[in-house]
Structure formats: C-alpha cells, structure tokens
Amino acid sequence: MSSNEIKIGAYLLERLVQLGTQSIQGVPGDFNMGFLDLIEDHPSLEWIGNSNELNAAYAADGYARIKRTISAVVTTFGVGELSALNGIAGSFSERLPVIHIVGVPSTAAQGAHSLLHHTLGDGRFSAFVNMSKEISADSAVLKQKEGVGEAIDRILVSAMKKARPVYLALPTDLVHATIPADALKTKLKYDAEPNDEAAEKYVLNVAKKHIEQAKSAVILVDACADRHGCIAETRELIEKSGLPVFATPMGKAIVDEDHPQYGGLYVGNLTSEKVKEVVEGADVLITVGSLKSDFNSGNFSYRTPKESTIELHSDYTTVGYSHYPGIGMKGLLPKLSAILQPDQARRLEETKTVVPKFQNALPSDSSDVISQEYLWPRMGRFFKEQDQVIVETGTSSFGMLEAKLPKNTRWVSQVLWGSIGWSVGATLGVALAARENKLGRTCLFVGDGSLQLTVQEIGTMIRHGLTPYLFVLNNDGYEIERQIHGPERKYNDIPPYDHSLMLDFFGDQKAGKREGKSHEKDMEPSKKQFYRVQGRKQLDELLESDEFAKPDRIRVVELMMERGDAPKALKRQAEATGTANKYE
Amino acid sequence: MSSNEIKIGAYLLERLVQLGTQSIQGVPGDFNMGFLDLIEDHPSLEWIGNSNELNAAYAADGYARIKRTISAVVTTFGVGELSALNGIAGSFSERLPVIHIVGVPSTAAQGAHSLLHHTLGDGRFSAFVNMSKEISADSAVLKQKEGVGEAIDRILVSAMKKARPVYLALPTDLVHATIPADALKTKLKYDAEPNDEAAEKYVLNVAKKHIEQAKSAVILVDACADRHGCIAETRELIEKSGLPVFATPMGKAIVDEDHPQYGGLYVGNLTSEKVKEVVEGADVLITVGSLKSDFNSGNFSYRTPKESTIELHSDYTTVGYSHYPGIGMKGLLPKLSAILQPDQARRLEETKTVVPKFQNALPSDSSDVISQEYLWPRMGRFFKEQDQVIVETGTSSFGMLEAKLPKNTRWVSQVLWGSIGWSVGATLGVALAARENKLGRTCLFVGDGSLQLTVQEIGTMIRHGLTPYLFVLNNDGYEIERQIHGPERKYNDIPPYDHSLMLDFFGDQKAGKREGKSHEKDMEPSKKQFYRVQGRKQLDELLESDEFAKPDRIRVVELMMERGDAPKALKRQAEATGTANKYE
Predict the structure, then answer these.
(1) Rg for chain A (alpha carbons), in Å?
(2) Which residues have CB under 8 Å from A244's CB, separation 6+?
(3) Residue A389: band (very low, low, confident or very high) from pLDDT cuts 50, 70, 90
(4) Which sites bind Mg(2+) (chains A, B) (predicted)?
(5) DSSP state of B269
(6) pLDDT digits over A27-50, tens only?
(7) Which of A203, A455, B200, B440 is least surrounded, with the fewest CB atoms within 10 Å of its CB?
C-alpha cells in the first residue's frame, strides 16, 4: 500500500480516535476478527470484549453518556448484531451517538447468496440491515472500496449531529483493503448549523416580549441540553437570567443541585407541592432540551398552558403556539441570555424568595429498616463531586430523584427507553469512561431482579480492573412490576441468588494471571469485596468509613430491603401506568 | 361475558394447549402482565419466567425441538421484544415453530402516538413489528376485537405449516376483551397440502427410472425430515428400500445410529474416507429434508452431480435438473417407499457389504488428557436411549458428530444459525419438554466461552427443579474462534469464572423456600452438585458410577481441557471459513 493509503478498518478507527473514543465494546465473531486485529494492535484503543452483545451495546450507551462523544460496538453478522438491537434502540430513544459496526461475510459470498451459517437460510443478506435501519439515524453497507471514506465520514457526522446510533456493515474482504488516507487530515465537522440571522432575531423578539409581559418565569432543564452539547449555554442562561431553575428526571444534575437558583425536580403531578407551586404558578415556562415522555413528565401532567411555554430544542424553537423550525438552541441560548441579563439582579432577588431548598432530608422515624424513604437521601450524602451515579429503571431511578447530588455528579438513567438490566452493562461503559477521563467513583443502584438480566458483565469489569460500587437492592423480585400490576403474582418472582458469591464466581481468584502468550499483557484483575447490609446503622457505618470511600476495589453492597416498599414517585407513576393499560 | 364468549388472551392460550404447549417462556413487563395473569391462572400451563428475553427465546427454541410443536415466548413492547430477536431469528433459520407474543400499549395510547416509555421517542409504534417481520413467517398486530380469533388461528397455522416463528402484538386493552369461543371446538388443521395426484404420479415415475438405472443409491437424511414431521415416513423409506443411509450434522440421530443400514455422517469433504467412498461413489443420492448450509455440507463440498440427485422437500421435489413445485415429501415418501420395496432384499444384501460401521472408538494413546479425540466417543458411551444431547456451536457441535448416540436420542444443535450461548437457554426448554414428555436425561455440552453469554439461565433451571447435566469444556476462551482466526489474540480470551461456585450462586441454598404469599406454591428447587474433572481416569470413574447416572440433581461437570485442541472436523471447517473471509 502506498504511504498515503490506509486500510478501511484503520481509517474508521482513526476517525473514532479523533472523536475521542478510547474503548471499543463488542464480542468476537468469525466475520469481525480481521477488524479486531486492527483494534488490538492500535496503540490508543482498548478492546473490551463483553460477555454478550446486549451487554456490549449497553456499555457503549453508558460510555457515550460520560464521554459525550461517539461510542463503538462491534458485533458479527446476524447472530451478534441482533443480540445488540435492544441496546442500540435504547441509545436511539435516549439520544446517544453510537456506531454499531457489524462484521459481515465477504462481498463475494453475499453476492452469491450463499447459504452461510449466521444467515436466515433463505439468501436474504439484507434482512438484518433492514431491521437496524428502524433504529438508526443513518447506515452504510460497504460493497466496494470506492466512496468508503466518505460513507464512514457521513454516518459518523450523522451520529454526532443527531445524537443517535448509526449502522455500518463491514465485509471481511474490505477490512484490510486500502483507500486514500488524505481525508483524515481534516477533522469531521458536526457543529449545529448556524441559525438564519433574520429568523433568529425575530424569534428572540417574540420570546423577549413573552418573558417581559410575564410576572414570573421559570427554566426547566431536560436531557437534550446535555445530548446536544448545550450545557455551558444552559448554565449561562441560568446565571444571566437570574430565573428559578428546575430539572426533569432525565435532566437531573445538569444544573448543579446546590445552585442557589435550583429548586429541585419537576415531574408534573408527581412533584412535591412546593415545587409545583413555583413551576405551575409561573406565567412562562422556558424548557431547554425538553423530552416530554410519560415517565419524564408525570404522565404528561404539566399544567403550564402551551401559550405560556417557550421550548428550546436542538433544531427548532416554539414560543406559545408558534413553531420556528431551524432555529436551534446552540445559537439561540447565548442571545437569549444576553437579552435577559439587564433584569438579572431584580429576578435573582425574587428567585431567592420563591425557590424551595432541595436537600437530603432523612426521615425522622427511629426504625432500622432500610426503607426507600431512608435510602435515597442517605445515599445522596455519600456522593462526592465528580462521582457517577447510575440508576436502573425501577425503584432506583425513581428513588434517586429524591437525592440531592453534589456538583458535577454525572447522573446516568434510562427514563424513556427503560430496559431492565441496562444499568449493569452501562456501568461497565461508565466506569471505563470515568477512568479514562480521571473522574470520581462509579456507583450503580440496581434491584435484584434487573441485575439478573445482565449480571455476567460484572466479569468484564473485574477482568479490566475496574472498581465500581454495585449497590444491589434485594427486595425479592421485580418491585416496579409489582407496583404496576400483580403484587402477589409469581411472575414477578425471581430465582434467589447468593450475592455473596457473585464476585468470586465471575472473577476466579485462583485463576489469577493465566498462562499462555495471549495472557502476558492481561490487566491485573480488580480486588473484590462483598457486604451484606441489613439495617440503617450498618449502612451508616459503612458509608462513613474512610476505607469504604476509597474506590480501590470492586464492591458489591447487598441492601436487604422490604418487598412492597417503593419510592413515592414510583407509587404514583405505577398507578397512572396501571390505569392507562386498561386490562379490564 | 356470555357463556360462549372468551377473553382474547384465553383464546390464544386454549389454542396453544390444543397444539401441545405446556410451558410458556418469557419475562414480565408492564405491557404484558394482564396476559401473564391468564397464564398463571391456567390449570395446564406453566409460566417459566426466564432471566432475560434472549434466554427465553432460546428456551422456546429448545422446547419446540423436543415437543415437535409450537412453543411460545412472551415479552413486552420494545425493550423486551428486541432482546429476543436473535433467538427468534435462530428459530426462523433453523425452522422451528415459535410464537412471539408481545404485550404492547393500549390501542388508545398507540393511536395517539404518545411519547411512552419503551418507545423510540418519535411516535413510531410500527418500528418493532417491522423489525420482527424480517424474521417471521406471519404476524398479526391486533387493533380491535373483530377478526381476532381468525388472525390468531391464521398465524398459528402458518407457524406449524412453515415451521417458522410468527409474531403477535397484543395490546393491553384487548387481552381481557371477549370474542366468540365457538371456533375453539374445531382444532386447527396444519397438515401439508396433499400433492396433485397426476403430478405426483409423474414425479414418482421419473424418480423410479432414475433409481432403477443406477447401480447404487444412498439416502441422506437432513433436518427438515424432522422439522416437517416426516420422521416416520423417512424411516419407512429406509426400511422398504434397503438402501444405505447417512445423515448430515443437522439430521443426526433422526435415523437410529445403530440401524444396520446406517453408515454415519456425511459432511462433504469433512467426512471420513470410508463414508465418502460410499456416498460419493453412489450413482444416485436421495436427500430427505436437505438444508445445505456451509457448516452442514462441509462448505458446499458435496461431490454428487446435480443430475444424480433426488431432493425431497416439504413443498417441492427435484429429480436431476427437473424441479417439481408443490410436490411435498409427506405425500411422496410413502409412495416412493412402496415403489422401492420389491427390490428391498437385494439392496439390503449390498448395503450390508458397503456400509461402514459407525461406533464410539476411543483413541489408543495412553495419555490421561481429556483430548477432543477422546471426549466425544467416551461421551457417546455414556448416553442412554431417550436422552437429550444438546451441543453448543463450537467444539461441541463439531466434536459430538463423532459420537454414536443410542436409539431415540434427541440431538439438539444449531448448525445453521450458530449463535454462541444458545445452548444454555435451549437446555432449559429441552429439560422442561423432556420432563413433560417423560423422556430421559438432558445433557448439555458447552465451552467456557459460550457459557458466559447466557449463564444466568441456570438460575431458572434450579428454580424449576430441573436436573440436567451441564458439561462445561474449560479450555480458556473461544476455541472455535481461535481455530478460525487469531489463536493468540486477546480478543478470544474471556474472564475466568470459578465454575465451582456457579450452582450455589444462581440458586441460593440458604434462601430455600421463601416467605410470602407468592412463594407458597414455589417448586422445590433442584439439588445441586459440581465436579471438576482433570483427566480421563477421573472422567471414566464418574461416567461409570451408578449414582452419577441418575438424574436426581442438577450437575455441573467442568472438564479441564487443553487450549488449542479441536475436533478434526472443526479444524477443517475453520480453515475453509478463514479462507472464505479473505481478510488479506
């Protein structure tokens, strides 16, 4: 190959490195191993090697959340890629840029419609890409060398711009084929398109009038402020406007929760009375990156009328009933902040008087039971700045809403897609990203039910020497399901695991460093520790111990909790969901 | 509801019961629990409650193989159903009738395109059914009561006739709505269409001439003889024709392997010389239910020319280059047998002289290492009539081909789809079916790599009191991948598990019978035993012990084997696959 030629697989990897990826998730398969060679030999990439493809996709999702860039997952044709789909669909739904790279049979074998293993046996090689298209922002099925660089660049830009997954089919015979490398000298551009100046000016004027005419206004921060790279702009809006600010469940911790203008979470009618008063009493509601799903909005129970709402999105804006396509928040936010600044001081005074204080208040009862009411504010006091807090869909994702998190904590939850088991895979990705970015501790909260779906990924964590805290809420089954339907039904039961054996099962102490050429460069596996915690006192002691606070090993903390107990917000949501299902 | 009305969910269950289903696989989710109520309350159905949806789909696949009827898996909208797709696609590829029943949001919520949890967040409620259509023979998305009974009947008949999965979307508000029950009095008909008499007569004549003109002919039995319910007809053909018979990997054990006319496996150029001589030396090759995939045919290396081949399929026949659509083997086989019977005695004499003896020959070396060459014939001697033998894609599925199995052993492998991890889920389904049908023991052979993908399903086995033998080949990683590519690559490594802890981790002894109303009717969980086997002598002793032979507990037998060792057939196949991939 000439000096300015590069293998197609290597071209793709260089682009990923340029975008900030350092770890690649996936499972080996006979149609992707030629590509895995390139990853393993790459000086600045780490191949993770997950326990299965679904877990790999979950890990990629978690990794993208922390790195705030594209994440990659590699699978093999048919069998591998289909196992990953639920995870990829979750990244689509929750807006995370992920590239799903699928090693597929050689172009020759595909052209001949051969009856290969890993096929449907009917020669339809397009079936799997058709399936993935439903959950991808863009896709490319490589068929010859020509145009490959452009195709790779196009889908990577799509993923970054749209904050959605993309799909790449990479045939075995093209991985090591070469293409010109020149394009790599120019980095990919994926900034939001600038707004049309005249239109933007018009929208600003309308918004300004709206806010000036109002006696009161509040800001509501949601997930897409993060997903579309507008956190700095959102924080600026808060500072310069002096307005009260609240967050949705998906937007939690984007605003520092001890910010003087921050009043806590707003979730429609699931919200505390004090917060409801302020949010629903305001004349104008300014939402930033809103994603109004059922669980993110208290089953669509916002009270502010449409005509009093200003919505700022990545690629459109609404003011009352008026819709302005193409006016995105990346450009609009700084200008809106500037417009609002003159009244900052006055608004700030008002804000101080109305905003409720959000804090970790423990219940006053003297019981030693680790109740839901107790656990979450107690955990809130445990976290430190720069920690990662991952909550499983279930009691954890509802309960932890009630905990106040320190500044710069990363909140990782899956409120919209809500796939049980996601959090365990995601924790692997989060822990890898936190290690790469030198962030704080990684803490997972998962129920004994959800844990079972993806439990083997703990083996991958140990193998890579990761040291997350895994808090397992043992309440004898699927509690979120019991809250919605069938509290005494057997179908909400699970097999009882002995969690004390978990770390030693998934990381054989005795195997230690194994022999053989391929094991020479193995990482030192994690040290491990298990704790079974029966009551509040024991939990308190543990959380206050300096030794425990140091993330020098992987820890499983089994919290023995009562079946039937659930966070208040979940109880109310479950009732609404149960009613909407209309079984009778 | 009037006396001849029945809930839609109950109608579906009655149809499944009529077809012979007794166990239903799946995972609870908020959109399917109204349906699970009906399953849990049904007097003759057992809800299994798998550890995740992929494992559930694998279990349904295994269950369908043993029961030889439709198997059901229940998931929830989006998150649940997508996790099952790889398993369902496997059943499509390998031709098993499975109904995937998905609990979906109420028709009202779907009509309003609500931004519900478990959706893609863009109102596309059709995305998931579109994905499933690619891997389904038929599907029904219920939208109103009218025509529901007919739709359910139609897809069940499609599944049975085509031996493929079908998809049913069941909205929450329709599960308990009622429809007329009268149709249930008539059982579903799914027999193969009778052949056109005149056309069939013509085909028989052509086939007869073909065979009469040949000096020698052989029969090759393949998977679809089983999948399309033609085992009795195939056995009759063998008896009445007196011809030599061989099997493909996917057709193994359909013909009793100690039948005097049986000569072993034919896998193109992966076959032993003796078998090749007879099969490739024959003037006519009669294939029954052929499925000529790469791994099932030694990479398409059959030597018999097309003009000398007679293919009998479920819905067409070929004789040489002539293709006869609509002439299916169910009707044709008995008539072909009758035509061949007059020459039976003469052919039988010849057959006896040419057919090689297929037997469990142990290697003659005195090593104590459990080599691949030793293991498979040794295991062949362990099995008894009516046992189930499940082999994972990998060294096991290639190795066990070399073992002679006793009469009426059920051979369970996934040669075409070849999804690693499938066998563990499938073992759950197989063990349930074997218990229901009062068959013999269930024996799984899986490598330490493949085991990790789906290992948690062992918890479900213990919970349901099942007692399979789980033979785990510990050879330090993905050996089949190492054979194909990258023998020293780290990407073929896996985290080392301590298999001695596996059963106690997934089935907490101390938890025992748990308290609470829902646990009152819990099954007694399995007794458990673990064995680590280091050498041949130890294995011998174990396999010869009467205590071990009795399936009164779930057993994990860890076989310590050497990395780099592989069955001969796999070595040859891996070479062919590696070459076809053309990485350089």
Answers:
(1) 25
(2) A218, A219, A261, A263, A278, A282, A351, A354, A355
(3) very high
(4) 448, 475, 477
(5) B
(6) 999 999 999 999 999 999 999 999
(7) B440
Beta bridge partners of B554: B528
Q: CA-to-CA distance for A473 and A482, rounded, in angstroms?
A: 15
Q: How far is B123 from chain A (nearest CA, A)?
A: 11
Q: Considering the entire predicted model, what is its pTM?
A: 0.97
Tens of pLDDT, residues B35-80: 999 999 999 999 999 999 999 999 999 999 999 999 999 999 999 9
Using pLDDT thresholds of 50, 70 and 90, give the confidence band for residue B516. confident
> With contact defined as beta carbons under 8 Å apart, do A118 and A85 qualify?
no
Q: Where are the alpha helices (DSSP H) in A214-294?
A: 224-227, 231-241, 273-281
Domains of chain B: residue spans and CATH = 5-185 (3.40.50.970), 197-354 (3.40.50.1220), 372-513+520-581 (3.40.50.970)
The complex's ipTM? 0.97
Residues of A in contact with B109 (CB under 8 A): 580
Characterize B113-132 residue by residue with b for buried, 16 or more Cβ atoms within 10 angstroms of its Cβ, and e for exposed: ebbbbbbbbeeebebbbebb
* Terminal-residue alpha carbon distance, chain B: 69
Q: How many CB atoms lie within 10 A of CB B315?
A: 16
Is residue B273 part of the annotated active site? The answer reads: no
Write the single-letter amino acid at B370: I
Binning pLDDT at 50, 70 and 90, where does residue A579 land? confident
Q: How far is CA A44 from the centre of its chain?
A: 24
Does the distance separating the beta carbons of A481 and B33 come in below 8 Å? yes
Place of tokens 């895979």: A425
**Residues B37, B398: contact at Cβ < 8 Å?**
no
d(CA A350, CA A124) in angstroms, rounded, equals 65
Interchain pair A495, B118: CB under 8 A: no
Q: How many CB pairs under 8 A join A and B?
A: 351
Query: B56, B50 in Cβ contact below 8 A?
Result: yes
Measured CA to CA, the distance from residue A292 to residue B117 in angstroms comes to 10
pLDDT mean over B146-172: 97
- Sheet bearing B217-221, strands edge to edge: B262-265, B245-247, B217-221, B284-288, B309-312, B316-319, B322-325
Burial class (CB in 10 A: 0-12, 13-18, 19+), B237: buried
Active-site residue, selected from the candidate residues A313, A477, A492, A558? A477
Closest to B285 in 3D by CA, of B257, B252, B311, B323? B311
Write down the residue that tokens 């990156």 correspond to: A289
Count other C-beta atoms under 10 Å from residue A326's C-beta.
12
Burial environment of residue B95 by CB neighbours within 10 A (0 to 12, 13 to 18, 19 or more): buried
The pLDDT of residue A577 is 82
Compute the distance between CA of residue B584 and CA of residue B568 in angstroms, rounded to an integer: 25
Report d(CA A519, CA A497) in Å as an integer. Answer: 31
Q: Which helix (H) or strand (E) holds B75?
A: strand B71-76
Q: Tokens representing B386?
A: 């009516």
User: Is-contact A290 A254, C-beta < 8 A?
Assistant: no
Alpha carbon A101 to its chain centroid, in Å, reads 20
Q: What pLDDT is attached to residue B518?
A: 79
- Catalytic choice (B37, B111, B117, B519): B117
Q: What angle do CA B105, B109, B115 make, to 5 degrees?
A: 95
- Backbone torsions φ then ψ of A400, nearest 5 degrees: -70, -15
Neighbours of B474 (CB within 10 A): 20
- pLDDT tens-digit readout, A505-564: 999 977 656 677 778 888 899 999 999 999 999 999 999 999 999 999 999 999 999 999
Cβ <8 Å between A581 and B514: no
